[in-house]
Amino acid sequence: MSVSRLPRHARLPRPARFALAALALAPALLAAPAAASALPLPLPGTEHGDHLVVTVTDSGSWSGTHHLYCHPDGGTYRNAKEACAQLDRQTHWGRDLFAAVPKDSVCTMIYGGPQRARVTGTWAGRRVNAEFNRKNGCEIERWNRFSGLLEGPKSTTKS
Q: Exposed/middle/buried for 3, CB within 10 Å: 0-12, 13-18, 19+?
């Protein structure tokens, strides 16, 4: 095949072809960080959104079993939109949002109260089965990260 019959880009020197290939890939490479921080896609069969069942004990009037639906937001939460948004902000690829405090953690010995919670269901297409308490500083910090989910609606009455 003669050089004149080759496509125009094939007649370019090798460095120029690499530069053209890099230009063609630039939009995809620039979008990669944004895609990495995006929320994971749900698994097939979970198109109806996320559903968590939260059972809270020793927490006064909020004790009991509550249902939270996200995407679309709803359930037995008056603050479902805020609770879902808090979970969305913390959801990242490759990290278990509901992971327990690691066993080898060094935690302050501060008792935060008798509150306990169990969260089960599905979040971001993954099964959830997590337990929460306030028995030390690490557990209190973990509880606080899920305050919208574990503490229920904040009082809106004014004194």
A: exposed
Q: Are 17 and 27 in contact (CB under 8 A)?
A: no
Contact present, 143 and 150 (Cβ < 8 Å): yes
What does the pLDDT look like over 30-82, one tens digit per residue? 554 444 444 444 445 544 679 999 999 998 888 899 999 999 989 998 889 99
Closest CA to 55 of 153, 121, 124, 2: 121
Least Cα distance to 130 among 96, 104, 95 occurs for: 96
Question: Position 103: which residue type?
Answer: K
Q: What is the DSSP string of the chain?
A: --GGGS-GGGGS-HHHHHHHHHHHHHHHHHHHHHHHHSPPPPPTT-TT-EEEEEEEESSGGG-EEEEEEETTTEES-TTHHHHHHHHHHH--TTS-TTPPPPTT---------S-EEEEEEEETTEEEEEEEE-SSHHHHHHHHHTHHHHS-PPP----
